[in-house]
């Protein structure tokens, strides 16, 4: 609520000036008080916007426990030292190391780009990292899911993950292909079957690109439905 202070100060100031004006009836003060009025409106608008944003965030956070839990569960997969802060070194650095040691160099380079892209262009997380339990994680979720451009980036990223996982270029992911990608993303072996089933919407035993995109976008942006895509 500290953000209210400048507004209150200005309100007090303008109230004093306006009533003094009215008492003394000094017409030449009309112009400055008009500017003050504009300034006052401007500050009011911004203060109000801040408060509304804060309230909306709280509301969304409390109404969407499922969503917050999903986002935090995803972030925790990569918090390898378990200190509750997901740093770029953990999310990007370690994954890149694993990828580079497990795959041929061309595939590894492609995947490395996709991982770096996710951190800085899709989710846009500061290099210093993010406090997983803070509201910041919901702010990131809202920034991605409530904005068409950002959501498009999420889809483009998900398509890249799909293509890189589809190693036999069949345009479908088998259990083995799915397992390699999600295993590298720290989903445990015992959770891989449920993760596969979460994406294989029609239960055909293969994940199509449409199913994959639906599952990925749903994981990050569906605020009411939980998903085992990144483990239980
Ligand atoms: C979330 O997922 C459920 C189940 O798939 C679906 O019924 C619902 O429409 C989805 N909500 C949004 C906002 O996409
Ligand atoms: Ca950490
Ligand atoms: Ca399928």
From TrEMBL:
Gene3D superfamilies: EF-hand. Residues 1-22 form the signal peptide. It comes from the Eukaryota. The keyword Calcium applies. Keywords: Calcium, Signal. It holds the Pfam family EF-hand_5. The keyword Manganese does not apply. One of its GO terms (molecular function) is calcium ion binding. Residues 187-222 form the EF-hand domain. This is Sarcoplasmic calcium-binding protein. It comes from Lingula anatina. The lineage of its organism: Eukaryota, Metazoa, Spiralia, Lophotrochozoa, Brachiopoda. The gene is LOC106172904.
């Amino acid at each position: 609520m500290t953000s209210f202070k400048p507004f209150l100060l200005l309100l007090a100031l303008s109230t004093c000036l306006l009533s003094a004006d009215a008492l003394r009836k000094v017409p030449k003060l009309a112009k400055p008080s008009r500017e003050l009025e504009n300034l006052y409106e401007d500050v009011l608008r911004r203060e109000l916007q801040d408060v509304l944003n804060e309230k909306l965030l709280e509301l969304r956070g409390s109404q969407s426990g499922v969503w917050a839990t999903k986002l935090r569960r995803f972030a925790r997969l990569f918090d390898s030292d378990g200190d509750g802060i997901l740093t770029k070194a953990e999310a990007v650095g370690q994954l890149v190391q694993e990828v580079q040691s497990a795959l041929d160099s061309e595939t590894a380079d492609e995947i490395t780009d996709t991982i770096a892209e996710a951190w800085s262009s899709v989710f846009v997380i500061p290099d210093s990292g993010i406090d997983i339990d803070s509201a910041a994680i919901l702010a990131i979720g809202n920034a991605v899911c409530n904005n068409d451009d950002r959501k498009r980036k999420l889809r483009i990223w998900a398509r890249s993950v799909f293509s890189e996982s589809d190693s036999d270029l069949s345009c479908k992911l088998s259990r083995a292909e799915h397992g390699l990608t999600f295993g590298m993303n720290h989903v445990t072996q015992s959770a891989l079957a449920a993760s596969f089933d979460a994406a294989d919407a029609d239960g055909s035993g293969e994940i199509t690109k449409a199913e994959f995109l639906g599952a990925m976008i749903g994981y990050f942006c569906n605020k009411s439905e939980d998903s085992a895509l990144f483990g239980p």
